[in-house]
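Researcher: Dear colleague, please comment on this protein.
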Amino acid sequence: MEFNDPADQRAAGPERPSAVSVRELRPDRESRNGQAGYHRERAWEVGRESVPMTGNRTMQHRRREAPSTVGRGRAVTRKEKPDVNEWTDGTIHVFLGDSLDHYASWLTPTVIISDGGYGVLGFDGDTSDHFGLPAWYEPHVRAWARYSTPQTTLWFWNSEIGWAAVHPILETHGWRYVNANTWNKGLAHIAGNVNTRKIRRFPVVTEVCVQYVLEARVQGLSLKEWLAKEWKRTGLPFRKANGACGVADVATRKYLDQSHLWYFPPPEMFCRLQEYANKHGDPVGRPYFSLNGLRGATADEWARMRSKFNCPHGMTNVWDRPPLHGAERVKLNGDSGKAIHLNQKPLDLVAMVIEASSDPGDVVWEPFGGLFTGCIAARRTERQGYGAEIDPTYFHYGLDRVRRESSQLHLL
């Protein structure tokens, strides 16, 4: 098994604030493409009164040393400090330090690439087993939910047991499981150097990259619940929804259904539902299907209530990809030295998930930067990348990597 990127050496305590809702879509900062960014806690909600997170204070992070932290040998530890603490070329933005201290200044993410603690003592600050991972990740998961929108996709890299340990924390803060993807590195990853009589299990040659999305809620309800409630408020028979959408039974069988068969209405169908409801429904209850209580939502507003996704042709959730080697692997003294980072991810896999869940111009976060593979993949796919790395040695080599990437692309 390969180890994870270095990250926050401190974890927050178990205290969790109350959920935060907003009365309407309130922008707090502008993103690069002009869309508003939003603050929220847990699931992304519209339509209820705002509730303070911790009295009149803003979100604060209680930090302590990660449990069972033990030093671990590695290829190099630099004594010299990096020449800068932050760097940008206008597209990639990287910072030395705890990502918790930088989230508030980053633009709203469409993609978050998480490759942090695995609970295998992969670096100073990692935990010795999976039991410490929930506390290790909780402040980050909470912050991701706060600064994301329903369009945000989280790609959570980890071991199988590490993911299982953190999953309840992700769900608690509004991240909904979509799919588990397996990176199969094949037999080359162990090269016959495993004594199965000693380890008493099959050799591990996989990691998981799990897809999560931030759940959107309106008036405290899931979208599925809210759609059915809004139509019921009109006083119209449910069968009328089919006529409104120009379909035989899809509206009642999918869009307004409350079972696992529910389907997110395409923006065109949503507009047909709300236009029909506001024209023929009980006038006392108007507006219907409104996200702000003032008017019916537009097609674009409704489209932003779920994440983006475009599956590459021919891909499944099993990614057969040999361990990283060759020129892409960052090593000391070129190809002759040891790998600087044990958990450097392949650029092609990271670029694939970024392209699958965002559009050019969108923002990618890499909270546990390491060698900043996510930021480099973001740049190559015409996205903006924001990353932080707490370890000065890894930040030095990661910064050198992104500088070389930037200079090479400028020459093209």
